[in-house]
Amino acid sequence: MRQLSGFADVIDRYDGFILDLWGVLHDGEQPYPGVPDCLDRLRAAGKTLCLLSNAPRRTTGVIEKLNGMALGRERYHHVMTSGEATYEALRDRDDPWHAALGRRLYHMGPERDVDVFAGLDYQVVATPAEADFVVNTGIVTFGETVADYQPQLDACLAAGLPMICANPDLIVMVGPMMVICAGTLAAHYEAMGGDVRQHGKPYAPVYERCFKLLGIADKSRILAVGDSLRTDVAGANAAGIDVALVTAGIHKEELGAAWGERVDPVNLRALADASGHMPTYAVPSLRW
Fold first, then answer.
1. Direct distance between the N- and C-terminal alpha carbons of the chain, in angstroms, rounded to an integer
2. What is the pTM of this model?
3. Burial 126-157 (b: 16+ CB within 10 A, else e)
4. Residues 28, 48: one domain?
5. In this predicted model, what pLDDT tens digit does every residue of 193-230 receive, in sequence order?
6. In terms of domains, do 163 and 235 share one?
7. Which helix or strand (DSSP H or E) is residue 108 part of?
């Protein structure tokens, strides 16, 4: 695993980039230092950029949020999200698991995420007892824990509800705070015995969508960039593309380096080996 000082080190090796958002482009509140410059330089070098986020909302909402951070459409080409993948799965119902779902859904998550099912032929119900399945988009308020959702999870299990998880991430950085995501609730529900289907990274369909958006046939010319070994690196490994791990993201404390600094290669290798997912490169942040 090679540690890069920035993406200029390998720019000639790739034509397309699949970039994570939270923990790579921004912290949920503002872009990280160097990110706007790096995006502009990648585009100026003729590279095609596809943003891929495990955000539990459709691409329009993500684009709006990026606009508010001065990361406008002029700085990237395409966007795909786990929320968009969830919407498409609920719309198309083109596999046996989704086709077997009823039409009454219980939403576990904040109101801002309802676009993953809004406008589709479903009835939103108030309690798990009334539902055929549950759509899990995560916690309502930053700082909440699994314990806050245990009563809802118990009720869903008692009703025998299958769960769709619209964000497989376990945790995410929001400013300086680490908060749990829908994936943590889904993992707990599955451990309780619940039936769960997840959309987004690290699962193959979302990468296939990105490949189509990029329009690059040779996958050796595509580089993924993310901060999670479990989702970003695992997904890229399974998809057969190179991947750079941003070490200043969710693994920063485990790696023991200050933001933007290179990490100890021994610690980095041990963490990757323990996860079972191996990055091609490591880089302190998204920087040129």
1. 19
2. 0.91
3. eebeebbbbbbbbbeeeeeeeeebeebbebbb
4. yes
5. 999 999 999 999 999 999 999 999 999 999 999 999 99
6. no
7. strand 104-108
